[in-house]
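Section 3.1: Structural characterization of target chains.
Under the original work plan, the team committed to producing a structural model for every single-chain target entering the pipeline before any wet-lab resources were allocated. The record below documents one such target. The sequence was received from the expression subgroup and is listed exactly as submitted; it comprises 339 residues.
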Amino acid sequence: MNTVAGQYQTRLKNVDNSFRELFQRHPTNPILTAKQWPYPAHTVFNPGATMFNGKVLLLARVEDRRGHSHLTKAISEDGITNWQIDPLATLEADPDNHPEEIWGIEDPRIVRLDELNKWAIIYTAYSRSGPLVAMALTADFVKFERIGPIMAPEDKDAALFPRRINGKWALIHRPIVANYVPGAHMWLSYSDDLIHWSDRRVLMHARRGGWWDGGKIGLAAPPLETAEGWLLFYHGVRKTASGSIYRMGLALLDLEDPSKVLHRGEEWIFGPTEWYERQGDVADVVFPSGWVLDEQTGLLKMYYGAADSYIAMATASVSDLLAYVRQCPPSIDQDLLAY
């Protein structure tokens, strides 16, 4: 079989069928909804996630009844039940001092920066000129140091790597670049100080045509460091006659040069199937945006927005994720544009 389809079928025969469903949804999903919120809210979704003082901390996107979003903290011992939710917004837009936040702040990704002894929150600020990437630092999730915009509009779906790579901080983000290859692609930028960013380059192109990630891709949850490389969770969007479908795929980046994509999955591995993923403000969306890892068991808890209306959680073994992605073909990114 020398055709692209034939090569895919051959690879499929070599993939262990036990890896078909890598993520298992929690049976009590959705685990957080606007009904649980201590103040009026329209929807809660797309949370950043981290461990804080031995507990799971989510920073949820909360859309109010104006249609503007802010971020609110929820903490749980087990990451599933008995959430302690801040009685008011934890981090809200500040358009008087940060006019780029005039229409709210959205979709946080949280990364622990041990070098600074702080957490970095990369979020989308909704400006008059469109969405842009902004940053805040915190040591306690009570007080926040706003760095402000670090990318110009239109740009979003961003997160830091948790450590410097070859002396520089690295950021994955998704700009819309005029006069470039049609579509929305993932880019990589570097910085010495977390403020000024340069050396921008395309990390992964969106595929074209009927692919599940044809036309638009973006970072899902922050990259996860493993001995084999950076495990990359990304979302792909396919437009259909009934609207767009948001699903998640995997890639593996080189540990010391994340601009090198070692493997990229051809299939999506997590997509909307349950009612809370298919019915909501935006139907047919799973949008993973944060994870926490049990270092002893290797079990990953993935937190995601469902249908832009709820927060849900699914678990997977990191060893299973790596076993799957290492069987995916080597990524030759330019070839993806051709078919």
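The two ends are 17 Å apart (CA to CA).
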